Amino acid sequence: MDICDKSIRNLEYLKVLERLTHKASSALGREKCLALRPAASYEASQAAQQETADLLEEIIRKGDLPLAGFDDVREIIAYLGLQRMPAPADLLRVGRQLRLVAQLQRRLPDDSSEEGESSLCYQLIDSLEALSELEGEIERCILNDDELQDRASSELYRLRRKIESLQEQVQSSLQRIVRSQAEYLQDQLITLRGGRYVIPVKAEHRNKIPGLVHDSSSTGATVFIEPMQVVELNNQVREAKNEEEREVRRILSALGAYCYDFHEQLLANQETLVRLDFAQAKARLALEQKAHRPNLNQDGKILLKSARHPLIDPEKVVPIDFELGYSFTSLIITGPNTGGKTVSLKTCGLLTLMAMSGLHVPASEGSELAFFPYVLADIGDEQSIEQSLSTFSSHMKHIIQICDLAGPGTLVIADELGAGTDPTEGAALAIAILDHLKQKGAHVVASTHYQELKGYALNTPGVSNASCEFDSESMRPTYKLLIGVPGVSNAINISTRLGLQREIIDKAKALISDEGAQFQSLLEAIEQSERKSRQMEEEISRLHEKAEKTRAENEKEKQRLRAEANKVMQQARQEAYVILARAELQAEEQLKALRQSAQATKELEDGKLKLRQEKEKLGKSLAEESVRSDIKRELTAEDLVLGEEYQDVLSGFVGQLVEMPDSKNQVGLSKGNLTLRVALNNLQPAKAGNQSDQANKKVEFSKAPLKLRKRGNTKPISTRATTKAELYLLGYRVNDAVAAVDSYLDDAVLAGLSSVRIVHGKGTGALRQAVRDKLAHDPRVATYGDAAFGAGDAGVTVVELRV
Question: Residue 176 and residue 435: Cα distance in Å, rounded?
Fold first, then answer.
């Protein structure tokens, strides 16, 4: 194992991959997860990060992609390439892949302008080729892993029906034998031996039933005989099954060849599905770890905000802030054992590897990580963070390999550099190694206990101290990393609090040189100052977050109030619109009614004018005729008899007298449903008042009622003039109202009215219902319904007549 592979293992990158595999949906996806390694270029790392980000956005917006259930079809394709017959199960695996492709493509947006349509996720889905015809053929032909559908071919259907028919004949024949010769049988049943139907016969009666013996029981008491009566039928069953098997093989071979015609598309689809599964696994892991996409750079700059080691329990891990590559390229972390130095080293190295591999990192947004061609690590005896062990040893062999590979763009992680030997020599060796790596342009993160390295970091440009904080009050590490502050061992303070004898503590302090004691006190002061400064920063940050939260809440409330006001205004506008729309509709209907009334009035006036002209013309003609002819005297009111028939000499209308002369000296003549008002001086008895033939010739239009022509329609002017467009039924009983409606519709049709109103009121609704029941079955009615709002609505029925 070379140093690069060992570094990956030491930083526990492979354990992250194991967790990644649990997020994949397929075996092929899990294989790809385990094979993931840091990208070879900055551009490839960025592309891998974008792939993860696209799938993460898709999962958040629409949920997981349906990737479960697709199998590896490479072996099937290779098998089909040898022109071999596939099994139904193989074809079903191909069919499952095609169904999965169809499901994924249904997620594509219908509108090309929809947000997210240009994402890598949708591009991959769009590149899949849906072989719908092949999918349909597989579904039509394959029933399950072992069988074909009856309708896979017409020949297969015919053969299976034939086999069923023959088997029924065999069983029917055997049933007759079983019933007729039951005393010779061991059991009254029919069974199979060697694919042929047989019956169990007692051994001592085997000669009683002629046939072929196919088997016997283990005791020899029963022999299984195929009676001669069904031998031929069984032979036919066997032949039909052989034909069925040949047809099944033919169908499978043809379907396999059809699949192989699309082998390139099937293999390309599989590769895309595996890539989607792999990308989705990365996105799922990011969701689980609450990870974010880091900002990658090629400048060797690392800035981690609230970074968490991904393998430590999220409830226990302490986030750290980490910096490298801005004002210094080498960082030396010091502090007591079990204080968190190794965790900090591994967090930096592991998150760098994850970012280069396209995985999001468990750190806050805005974190930055650099792309390094080499990440080289020497982590003591490969301690396990998951087991909270913190033992350290030096692997100089690995350091030698690291020094050989190190150069610009290399990140070196070294735990307990120079440990395991004489402190003086170890410190000198560690300083020399650090200086060598710095001169080669490598970025270094190292941990140590040596005081000399703290001084080296303080006095060397481009090198900085860092420490893992230790709470001397509780004698416990806080696991927080302090950049720029050298660590303090705290060995004497810890020993004192643990109860070590005072004289031992005093002697230990006396053995420390004055310079060492001053340096130690200085470090303690710096650490305390840094702690207070950080606490102040945290308080300021907390207050800032609180202020931002309050501002956000105020803004949210402001938006809510604005939205509510807009909603109220929108509702008011809608209600106003409805009111205006109704008013406009009522005004339009009223205007329409007025227009119709005005038109009818105009037509009536025109008709009256023409009638007057014709009447004057006719009067003159009659006057001239009366001079030449012997006309009977005019009738008086005393001459009239109600019920007798009279004739209007002007129009020729003959009808029964129903009304005596009124104040205008007009009488009423009625015939059928038509009643006319006629002047008394134009009235003659029907029997004696007929005009002579010569008079009829002179007044030719007297044979029919006088008519006016308007827009091609011929309508009796007398009826239109007397029939109103509205019928009032208020106060009527139901039966009387129905009769009145029937009579009124006759008059309206004869008068040529196209639309009439029937006023029945609302009341209990009985009169309205009776009128509408009549209208619903009347052939003269085209449509009917309530009047417009404000024009009677439910109390008036508007009727459109068939003109």
Answer: 104
